[in-house]
Amino acid sequence: MLDLLQSAQRLKQDLLEAPVKKSAALRGQAFVNLFFEPSTRTKNSFELAGKYLGADVINFQGKGSSVEKGETLYDTALNLEAMGVDLVVVRHQASGVPEDLARYLSVPVVNAGDGFHEHPTQGLLDLMTVWERNPHLDSLHLVIVGDILHSRVARSDLWGFSAMGARVTLVGPPSLLPTALAVPNVSLTTDFDAALADADVVQVLRIQKERQSMAGMPSVEEYRLRWGLTAARAKQLGPSAVILHPGPQNRGVEIDTPVMADPRAHILGQVENGVAVRMAVLDRLMGGDHE
Amino acid sequence: MSNDTVIRIRGARLIDPYQGLEAPDADIRILNGRVLASQEGQQYPEEVIDARGLWVVPRLIDMHVHFREPGQTWKENIETGSQAAAHGGITAVAAMPNTSPVIDSPELVEWEAKRARDLGLVRLYPVGAITVGSEGQELADLYRMQAAGARAFSDDGQPVMSSQMMRAALSYSTTLRTPIINHAEDKSLSRGASVHEGRPAARLGLAGVPETAESAMVWRDVLLAALTGGRLHVAHVSAMDSIDALAWAQHRHLSVTAEATPHHLLLTDEALTAWGYNPVTKVNPPLRPEASRQALVTAVQKGLIGVLASDHAPHHQDDKARPYPDAPFGISGLETILGGLVTALIQPGLMTPMNALKLLTTGPDGVLGLGCQGLAPGQPADLTLIDPGHVWTVDPDCFYSMGRNTPLQGMALTGQARAAMVNGRWVMREGEVLSS
Questions:
Q1: pLDDT tens digits, residue range B212-229?
Q2: How far is CA B34 from CA A141, A212, B417, B418, in A?
Q3: Residues of B in contact with A95 (CB under 8 A)
Q4: Is A233 helix (H, G, I), strand (E, B) or coil?
Q5: Superfamily for the A2-119+271-286 domain
Q6: pLDDT tier, A71 (very low <50, low <70, confident <90, very high otherwise)
Q7: Is residue B206 less than 8 Å (CB to CB) from chain A?
């Protein structure tokens, strides 16, 4: 993982921050963005990451495709593989689809978010954003707040940060906290203020009103009052704390507008690092032995 | 086999729960579909079957199967389902009515029974729907279906969500003397879920259903059985608190019976960790944690659960090839139920062969009110020869069922049927199903 972060950092310096953002590293390679769920940020981020590295990319939307005409997604993927793509990036509303696809395909499959299972490149970009500011990840306390039950971002952050030795606290409404996620180094609480007291990193999850039935979700007002990162709450955080949000934001619900502009918030930095870690992932999976 | 040849099965160990009879070196003679008394039929030539080392067991009943016909014959049909039964050594089944159309009229009950009778591979007892179309809105013609041959009523696949409807059905059952079988699942607690709500589900990011979705409804049904005096049979018990409800019912001497499946006795939700997102583990009710599995085994040992049933629910591989949350619930079970019984209960010494085999004989016979008398003279010769020590690996490619999905795939089971006879005719020998 550290290896990936280092190469992401290198690519960010050499390419993303360079005047000409074009490398030949993946010239002649092609991959497909297979998105069965709406996404702007992640899809564009993968697309740009591939283009900066010289790869060709096509975008495939679930809507209007042969999938809507009844084709199974496995047949779709096999067809794309037959057309010669070297890698498949997939986003799907059902947990496990990327893993299943990987069993069917001989080319690498990158998970761009599946159901409420995982969103690994989001986990990596969050790690990178924190690691750039503090390389001692094992000394950190990460607080993730939101609808933990239905969040793939929470799971990827959880596994990523705890693998690096960080302590993780999951915070949310009692009906949206899966007790089965309690593992060593991970605690669950409904008390956001208590968790913030010694937080080094706060990941504020988006409230996803479009996902699942919203049984167990309090009113927007009540949510903001208890689990929103309000300006008042942000004041409790130390000067070196890092505030993250995977986007897109519901301003005034889970995060207040002034907090978005807080110097400790690195939300656009996350987006930039998203491109960097995706470059690193694509390069790792499609690149040759160049270096 | 000509009509005047006696089939003589020699040397097997007879285990006959219907008669409460066990004999180490049985000698069973069969003529014209019936078991002969010892002095009968001595003038006829004999075909002698050497069955030393095997068990001979009368009519094995799997009272919870889905044969998908009419309407979903790409998944299974009455013929392939019957073949699967014969292959598994099961000589009688009760078929659930959630076909398309639903078996909710006497005509359909008769049609289904006749289809199976014409094939002659397995005795089929139709289960009629409780409500029209199993939609939970109005009671189906229970009396007329019973007259046409329905042995039980169930909206299986769907729970009877309305308590008022369940009360009505249980009230009817007091005069029908036919059980009401409920698939207990509070849909408002299980909506969108595909696995047990536990650690493996949380890790995989799959929506889980708590055991409470089942046990809350089992408690409701048991309380309604107390209110009405009706006959309740609880399908595929999987939750710990459901067992408490069964114990309470027993304590109150209610007419409440229950079944367990081999997969709930053998597997836990850790199978999800092993199989990942392969929906062979997707079954309803879902595979539960180890503590629940143990509680279920204990309930079977204690007799709180008196029936083993496969919930044979075959699906086409294309249906099961969908993403886990979208794939249908259900696995094929007829060809592994006997091995499951021996492996889960007999081989580890948890139950004697006699007591364990009651789960497939007197248990379901009593629930359905069939009155089978085993291999007593004059009775129809339905029997299975079992090799109790044979260890074999489950390979769905060898199934006769059209459904090839089972989380038992690759597992070593002990005990396998070697031959099966229905009405005096061999329907399976040495693993090969014999059509009439």
A1: 999 999 999 999 999 999
A2: 77, 59, 21, 20
A3: 204-206, 277, 323-325
A4: helix
A5: Aspartate/ornithine carbamoyltransferase (3.40.50.1370)
A6: confident
A7: yes
